[in-house]
Amino acid sequence: MRHLISPLDLSVTELADILNLAEDIIRDPAKYSECCHGKKLATLFYEPSTRTRLSFEAAMLNLGGSVLGFSSADSSSASKGESVADTIRVISGYADICAMRHPKEGAPLVASMYSEIPVINAGDGGHNHPTQTLTDLLTIKNLKGRLDHLTIGLCGDLKFGRTVHSLINAMVRYPEISFVLISPDELKLPTYIREGVLDKNQIPYKEVRSLEEVLPELDLLYMTRVQKERFFNEEDYIRLKDTYILDAKKMALAKEDMLVLHPLPRVNEIATEVDSDPRAAYFKQAKYGVYARMALIMTLLGVHVD
Ligand code: CP
């Protein structure tokens, strides 16, 4: 039985297989429309979500399976004090696979230790979000045509941004990747990733404060939201929340084929005028999330279609 807790749980070869499968699903969705008939996905979401939960559910329904679950801790017995370990033991008897989002780092890992079904980490605190990374890789591969030889700008909340942490872990395994880390001092990439992932793998990177200064050199700009829910005091959030606002004037500084990605939801960090720019790929990215998760569910359930 396989779980997906960290992006590193999948080798580069396994990732390539999942991306290839997702691309085949995009080409011929009808071929896969019944392959999970009789299988159930449980979505255990202790923290709010629109894209991740609903794209997981759409993915399972597209494969002919069924879904069950809860969308907040308040509507589950977690509100009565039930542990994640007990919950997953019970859910193992109700479903074939589960996707779990939790505000506490490591909760899906704990669940996987007690589970009799595959557990997928759908985001754990400020730690990891491996299925967003699968979505990002599928988007980059399809829209840039490659996963190597890229200068990637990561902008905004690099401290708590789990999508950024997971993406860095995944991308350092491809040739000729470099990063430009764009953030205020208070939201810089944590040392355990800067030293433990970038330095350790001798990946070129620089840390800057100004987005304008580096925009012309980027192949890909990954914008992120300053996350109110991760701040301990509101004053800091208010001071930092609008540090970066990507608008049409700034986009004029970027390469003609630079891709703008964002895991969403966005607040102010991308002006809506950018949405009509052909380089804005964040809504396409959200749609790729369904295909990435369909391929992942099939892989973890060991379902094959000829
Ligand atoms: N990208 C993402 O995780 O979005 P949700 O929080 O809406 O699931």
Shape: globular
What is the mean pLDDT?
96
What small-molecule ligands were found?
A: phosphoric acid mono(formamide)ester
Strand neighbour order, sheet with most strands: 7-6-5-8-9
Number of strands: 9
Query: So what's the CATH class of the largest domain?
Result: Alpha Beta
CATH superfamily of the largest domain, please?
Answer: Aspartate/ornithine carbamoyltransferase
Largest sheet: 5 strands, parallel
CATH architecture of the largest domain: 3-Layer(aba) Sandwich
Q: Spell the H/E element sequence.
A: HEHEHEHEHEHEHEHEHHEH
**C-alpha Rg, in Å?**
19 Å
Based on secondary structure, the structural category is: alpha/beta
- The low-confidence runs, each spanning 5 or more residues with pLDDT under 50, are none
CATH topology of the largest domain: Rossmann fold
Number of domains: 2
Distance between the termini: 22 Å
Helices, strands, pairings?
Layout: H1 12-27, E1 40-45, H2 51-62, E2 66-70, H3 84-91, E3 97-102, H4 107-114, E4 119-124, H5 130-144, E5 150-155, H6 162-171, E6 177-182, H7 191-199, E7 205-208, H8 211-214, E8 220-223, H9 234-240, H10 248-251, E9 259-261, H11 282-301
Bound molecules: phosphoric acid mono(formamide)ester (CP).
Question: How would you describe this structure to a colleague?
Answer:
The chain has 306 residues and is an alpha/beta fold. The protein has eleven helices and nine strands. β3, α4 (107-114) and β4 (119-124) form a beta-alpha-beta unit. α2 packs across α11 and α5 (130-144) crosses α6. The protein is globular and about 55 Å long. Phosphoric acid mono(formamide)ester binds next to α2.
